[in-house]
Structures are given as structure tokens and as C-alpha cells.
Fold these 4 entries.
Entry 1:
Amino acid sequence: MDSERNMEVERLYLFLLCSLPGISGKKVRAMRQFAGSYKAAYELDMDEYLKQGIFSGRGRCYGYRERHKDQERLIREYEELKSLGIGLVAEFDMDYPVRLMDLEDPPPLLFYRGGLPRDGLPSASVIGSRACSGYGAGIAARIAEELCDAGVCLISGMAEGIDSAAQRAALRKGHDSFAILGSGVNHCYPMESYDIYELMCAGQGGVISECPVRSAPEPWRFVQRNRIIAALSDVVIVAEARKRSGTSITVDYALSCGREIFSVPHRLGDELGEGCNLLIRDGASIFTCTEDVLSSGVIAKRLSAGDGGIRIKERAGKKEEKTVTSLASSEKIVYSCLDFNPKHIEDIAAQTGLGMATVLRALLCLEKRRLACSVSSFYYRKVS
């Protein structure tokens, strides 16, 4: 009982330290190592940290100097977290994600809504550009669906473009997905992703952040959260990225954690996919099919620990087969003509030899079944 009480006290003071402005997680850990506990770290005089070089100057440790001003409000906020559906997990808790320990500076405290990824399950992130093409979004969705069907847990950042396309596809098929946010867990950013944010908060996976609950989304926070995406993933898959892309930050973090990088090859001259081709040139594994990832070292090892993923994959395959075989003949012909690059309806009609009216009816039917979608006027692509 005393041990539990001590841990709860430590969790509270860790929360107070992490809620102070200008105090990074790395600094919080250094304070604890010097003071011996988070409670002692919070109570220690600022001059002691200045002597040790943990704080580099009085002006740069304003948050710590003024810590008692907001203490009562922060304690109330801490006590209200559970009623708001927000969980806390500290680095000393049993359910703290062990993969994060591969980071040079693992977050000492995580906030979450929904749940946390399980350490024993294989995990992968599907990432890429925010301003992606229909092809990139389609590929990301397909990769996410197939990996999740096989029993792999999806980690991503809920950003517009590739990230949200992958997570939306996984959630649509009933799988769990986890989003790492660059804000407090009560902020949905971007708002266009609210549909998947809501599902994850409700327990179909979860949303996770090291940022205090009140934190607004800021550019520097997204750079920091990328290291958590990388560390929580056994492999990182880049579906589409430009030559200069923020995706490279996540890739660098993943490499520093010893994670394998997969990259989807793109056509030469395709600016939206140039970053993917450069990754392959620099040593990333080529993604040709989902089996490339499933047979990779860590993923294969985790999957072999049980057959749950195989059964899930078999069920999903039968469901997909049933969906396609139930189509009318004209719909099957049009569906077989589609791929993840948008095609104009006239090109589809020319390729299939069907009349425009027949093609349009077939496309409308495929849209209703979520097998195809319109990306612009009279342009259609395959969804799955």
C-alpha cells in the first residue's frame, strides 16, 4: 500500500513538473536524477539546479521559479483528468510503452485518451506528405488495411494526407489505431480528422501525447511528437513524400531507434514521390507488397508468437472476396479497370468497351460499396 501511495505522489509531482512552461521532459528527468525523486525535484531550490548546470540561467527557468503560482490549479486539473476520460502513464508504470525506452530522451509522462498500444503486438507507422495525391492516399489506405488485417497495430500522427488516409482505412475496417499528437489530447488537430479522433478516443485504439492537456498545436511540438511515432513503431513505411519533406524527421528518429524503414517506389519525375525514391537510394527497404513488411525481422517474430493475426487476415480476405464477387458483371469490369491513380470516366469507358451510362452506373455502385471514389469531376480511383 505504501508503495502504491508513493507512486501516486511521484506521479502527481511528475505531472506538476511536466506542466511547467519551458521545462522539457529531458530536463525533468535530469532534475529527478539529481534530486532523487520527482517530489524532491519539484521542491528543490532553483539555485541548486543552476549550480549543477541543469538550468543554464535564471531567465530561462521562469516556469520553475514561478511554479507555486499555478500549483493549486494544476492539482485540481490532475484530480479532474479521470473524469475527463484522460489517462496518465509515467515512465515507472508497468503499462508505459517499453519501445519508448529506445529513445535518447523518452517522455517521462504520457497523456492518453482511449488506450495504449500493447508491447507484445507488432506495430508499424504509415507516414508521408500532408499534400498527397490520390494515388498516395490509396496506397496508404491499402497498406494500413492489409497490415491491420494481418494483426499489426497502426501508429500514426493523424495529420492530413497520408497519415489520416492510413488511419481512416484501418478504423473503417474495425481495427485499432493510435495517433500521437503535437498538442494536448483534448485538441483535435487538424479538425478534418475529427471523425477518426473521436473513434480512437472512444477506445478503438487511442490518442497519445506528452504535451499537457491545455497545450495548443504548435510547429515545434510536431517535431517532438515524431520521435514518439518512430519509437512506437517496429517499422516505418513512407507511402509518398516530396524531396524536402517533414517525413525525413520521423525517418531519422526511427533509424536512431534501430527501426527498419520501408519506402514505396514512385515513377521517375513524380515530384510527390521523389522523397520515397531518395530513401530507397539511401538504403531504405523497397515496399512492393505487404508481405515485405510481414516477413521483416521484428514484425515476423512478433506475429509468430500467436496466430490471431493470421485468423484476422483470413476473415478479412474472405470478406473482400465476397464483396467483389457480389458485384454485377459491368461493375466487376469497371472495378478491374481501376487502380490508385485517378482515371477519367472517358478513359474507363474506352478501356472497358462499355457505354458511358453503363460505366457511370457502375461507378456509382462501386462508390456506395466503398470500393471506388471520385477525386474530382469525372475522375475515379480504387479505394481498396
Entry 2:
Amino acid sequence: MFKILGLAGSIRRASVSKAILRTLAEKAPGDVEVTIFDLGDIPMFNQDLEDDLPASVRALREAVAACDGMIVVSPEYNHGMSGVIKNAIDWVSRPGYASVLVDKGVAIITTSESPLGGARAQGDLHKMFLSCLSRIAPGREVSIGGTQKGVVDGKLVDETQIRRAMTLIDAMLDEVCLVQGREKRGSRH
């Protein structure tokens, strides 16, 4: 069984990022369990608090440490990644080069109402996770555009985008297998 942690870069109730994560969790193969961690209670990063971490930050670090890999879905704000994701990763990326993110598999998905689907945020997310020594899923980037039509009633309904996202998750799980010394799963989609 693979334990996957989902992080949404938007904390609003009707978050498209959360809707996409919920859809992917429902579509996950039987050997994959996706748990979505709500980042709404994570305070702004403050290095003064590192000796006595807030409970929500401890819980996030423990969840990242316990998972095999992560699905990160971020909206694009002002041509970049969401501050919610950046803040969460700032907390869990410590201590530098020895954090719970080292060798952690990551599938990066971006979203936007524009047809570009948050493509410009992809570079920010890749650079951030590379600096944390995480294992970014190789392959085509998944940038989901036109979300005002592609997400209906709290679910991603665009089957092409769902297939692309699931292929990316398969690639991330292959990275997990490589790091953990497990036999490669093979494509499921």
C-alpha cells in the first residue's frame, strides 16, 4: 500500500485545488491511499518558533514524514505558486538538506481559470522542491486550465485531465519505488 499526502494550495471552502485532490483520491488505484491535509491552520513561517513548533506544523511534518509521496495542487496567483503551498513547504523543509522532504516523491499539478492552467507556477514549484532534494515526478507537466468549466460540483470532470494527472501520479510512485527499493508498479492508466 502506498500512502500519499495531498496538499492543496488554496484554503477556501470551494477550492478548485481541493476538488482536484478529492477527485484524484477517489480515482486512485487500490494500492494507493490518498489523505488530504488541510493547510488552513498552518501559521506563517517564523523561524523563532522552530524550537517549539505550533501543533499544526508538527502534525504537517509528521504527515509528510509518514507518507510515501505527495500530490501538490497549487493555483497560480500573479504568475507564481500559491503562498499557502510556499509557506507549508517552508515549515517542513527544515532543517535544510535533512528535512522530511529529502527523497520524497512529489507530483506537481497547477490550476488556473486561464487556458495556461497555472503553467507559470510549475517552474516555481519545481525549483522549490528541487532545493528540498525531493523527487519530482518526471514526465509531462500537468497544468489544468479552464477550471471554471473543468471542475463541476466539487469534482474534476475533465477525463483527459484526470488521465494526465493519474499518469503523473504513477510516475511519482515509480520514483517512490526507486527510492524505497520496491519493485516498479508499472502504469495503471
Entry 3:
Amino acid sequence: MLPVTPQPARFIDPLSDFGFKRLFGSEPNKEILIDFLNQLFKGQKVIRDLTYNSTEKYGDDEQSKKVVFDLFCTCDNDEQIIVEMQRAEQPYYKERGVFYTARAISEQLPKGRKSWNYALKEVYLVALLEFEIETGKEDYLHDYCLTDRATGEIFYDKLGFKFIELPKFTKGEHQLETDLDRWLFLLKNLSRMDKIPVFLRKKVFQKVFRIAEISNLTKEERMFLQTKEQIELDYQSSLELAAKRAAEKAAAKARLESAEKAVRNMILRNYSDKEICEVQEVTPDYVTRIRQAIKSEIALNK
């Protein structure tokens, strides 16, 4: 039987850096991001228009860390929204989110003014994550703000965090109930699709498919995409190799510790060196070193 040759992808991966910014970061196609955000906010706010801002934010001096957002928008009601797509797991992602919003807030300080009444604009972080964060919840969607610990009453409603843990979103096509469900299903599965499903015939989804179709890319865009994909594959391969070597090193260490423990037990039970070497398959020199270590430990404890 002849091997099956994998078919080339028809659509770009919207969760890659290239795909995410192509779909959500284009001024002519900003209705895509607007629709996604409106489905996510579920009436909490309605965004009718937005403007893309510079994604690079600098501190007040040369020592301050520069922050680069994936997307940073100002909406028609003047609220600011940072939109992030994060593939690689980060242990302090919640702290990173707080840092990002803090930088966006500090940017609102008017330069050169001696007085200011602290009338802050609303700032939100929307984070699409391809890993799970420590929330203690099974839900894939998390909505956080500043609240009173005792009562749960909202203390400040102009700062919010929305985390979407994509690995926890496991709905199949027949389980999709809302447009947000359809959005998340599309983001997770677009790169594996070879045709447009009937349940994604909404106008904005049709536009996503059109923009994401690889055949619609320019020659330069396709070359750039191939380069980015190769870099990501190389990076993933290096991570897998590092993980494999770490696992092998840990297993070897565990075997050594287990062997040492077994030899120690036999020494303490007065087995001869010859018996220990035969049972544990170690050299006489190894047994001698363990005996000397035991004597030193006993001497120190006297």
C-alpha cells in the first residue's frame, strides 16, 4: 500500500504570530476583531469601532523594560484593549498581564502637565492562551476585575482581564451554541480545515476564511509564512529535544539513586562485597565508595 502524502494546508494557522496579526491586526479588516471582542464581552460593552495603536511601550527611563503588545487598540468609547496570543507556556503569565495593563495605564499620564485629576480610561487585557494557567477552575473563559474580598462587590470596573484557555475548549461542531463558541472552534481548527463548514457561514467568518486562504497570499507573504513556520518548527524541535534529554538525565539520576540505596541496604545488613557486586551488578570500587561514605556519615553523627 502506497503511503498517503499529506495535503498542503488550505488556510493559515490563526494562532501563529503571522496568522493572528493578519486576521486581527489589519485596519481594513478590523470588523473581524470588533466582532470577536463583542462576542467575548457579551454585552458588557459594545464596540462599534476601534483604532490600532502603536504596540511598543517604553518606560520613563532607559532602564525601564520595553513592552511590545501583540495588538493594542482604542475603541470608540475611549477604552483601551490589549489583545495577546500566547502559544508557549509561561509560569508567570498572570503577572505579565498585570504588568502589561500597568504600562498601558501609566502611558495615560499627560506629558508635561503639572496637575492631573487621574481620570483614567478603561484598560482591558484579552489573552488567548494555548496552555492552562493556575485558576483552580475547569472553565476555559475567565473574567477578572478588582473586587472586595469580603463581598465580591466590584471596587474598580475600569480594569479587566479576560483569559481564554484554548486547551480547555473541547466543544465539537454539534455543541456550538454561541458565536463565541464558533469563534473559538474556528481559531482552534482553521488550519486543519479544507472547506468552509455550513455552521460558519456568518459574514464575518466568511471574511476570515477569505483572508486566511493561503492561495490568496502574495508571493512575498507565502515566503514569509514558510520562513516563520520553519522557525517555529525548529524551535519546537529544540524544546522537544531539551525535554527528552532532561527526562533521560532524570531517569539516569533516579536509577543511580535507587542503586545506591540498594547497595547501602545490603552493606548495613552485612552482606559481603562479592555478594553485593553479584546482586546489584556494580563494581567493587563502587561498593568501597559507598562503605566509606557510610563510615563518614556515622562519624559525623557521633
Entry 4:
Amino acid sequence: MADSKLANKIINLRERKDMKQSELARRLGLDKSSMSKIENGTRKVSSDELNKLADIFEVTADYLLGRKVDLGDVPVAAHIDGEFDGLTEEERQEIMDYIEFKKAQYKKRHEKD
């Protein structure tokens, strides 16, 4: 069984870019059914595909794999206690996922420098 967390990240990133599944499949060099299986969590992603996904979405492979990224002094919300009052756990997680997404984008941009 493939990683459902990775599948969910791929879906979320694709939807944020307002990209159709068929377009992402084309950019990865896959047919639509293979892309569908990846997003359903029934097909694993190769390392080559993972790197292409990172490039397409301008994030790191570590972000896609759910690994924490230590960026030291990256300006990201450092103190958010109290800011989550009144939010559901799902809404909190969405905010934390977005912070991780932005950190991964920052790291990806600065790796090229």
C-alpha cells in the first residue's frame, strides 16, 4: 500500500494550483489511471516521480514525505499560542500544513542560490 499522507499532499497541492489530475499526470509522464492510483494511495511514487512532484509544486521532497524541515532562522509564525482558539482540529492542522508548505517552498528557493 502506498503512503496516504503523500497522496493527500499531492491532491492538496494540485488543487491549490487549480490543476487537473490529467495535467499533473501529463507533466509527470504518466497516464491518468496511474495518477489516479497514486492519489487513491494504491500506487507508490518512484523517487524520480517524487523529485518531479517537488519541482512542479516548488516544494521539497521532504515536505512531500511529511518530514520536518529545520530551517533555523526562516521567518515563519514562531509563536501562535492563542491564535488557534475557536478552531477545529482540522482547521489547526490545515494551518500547520500551510506553514510547512511555505517553509518547504522557502527552502526549495534558497537551495538554488
